Amino acid sequence: MANDSLIAARHELIKWFRKHGRKLPWRVRKLTPFQCLITEKLLQQTTVTHVLKIYDEFLKKYGEVGALANASEKELSEILRPLGFYNFRAREFVKMARDIMRKFSGRVPEDVEQLKELPGVGEYTAKAVMIAAFGKRLIAVDENLKRLGGRLFKGVEKASRGQVQEIEKRFLEMMGDADPREFNWALLDFAWAICKKRPLCGECPLNRFCRYYSIRGRRC
Q1: Which of 34, 39, 187, 220 could pair covalently with 216 via S-S, beta carbons 3.0-4.6 A apart?
Q2: What is the SS3 assignment for 158?
Q3: Quick one: angle between helices 86-104 and 33-42, nearest 10?
Q4: Would you say residue 218 has pLDDT above 90?
């Protein structure tokens, strides 16, 4: 995709997002870096719908690192029950908060590699926190973005492991000077609502830029 097409595709994506994007609490509220980290941890291996059931209560009780570091795992497990794996999640949350206190003097580090030292924080979560908390110009590629990027840039159903770095680079080029938070949220919502497992190619405002659509046309 040429630069002019990338710019045009970004314009269409952002326009779509501003009309159809989800107004989620962690997007519309001003959060601390620690609360951004909590949000991304809550979203791991579960759905937005389930997280919304406990989000306000969780942040009210454990939105400060000290409160989470001193939390009762039993009480924490009960709040986390709707998300599944609640005992494991409770232990991991408490350990994460204590590691932040011990290793980073109670502050969320502004560095991907340091964040990945925390329990349960991998590449995607670390980058998502860097984007949401600090506005870093990064792309957090999850399974949905492997699908979107694979289709858009490579014409395949889903990017392979070896293609992830390339599609991440293309997404960064597409982002240009856009706000990294809004751009990443737009990618996520677009992959969730339009470029899903059974894509809505006929409704897709990016289909004229998409290699997958050019190959499959109306058959997708």
Answers
A1: 220
A2: coil
A3: 150
A4: no
Look-up: residue for tokens 């939105």? Answer: 63
Which residues are CB-neighbours of 70 under 8 A, at least 6 positions away?
none
Question: Please, are residues 105 and 98 in contact by the beta-carbon 8 Å criterion?
Answer: no
**How crowded is residue 168: how many other Cβ atoms within 10 Å of its Cβ?**
19
Of how many residues is the chain composed?
220
pLDDT digit string (tens) for 74-105?
A: 999 999 999 999 899 999 999 999 999 999 99
Alpha helices for the chain (secondary structure H): 3-20, 25-28, 33-42, 48-62, 65-69, 73-80, 86-104, 112-115, 123-134, 143-149, 164-175, 180-193, 211-216
Considering the entire predicted model, what is its pTM? 0.93
What would the DSSP string read from start to end of 132-145?
HHH--S-----HHH
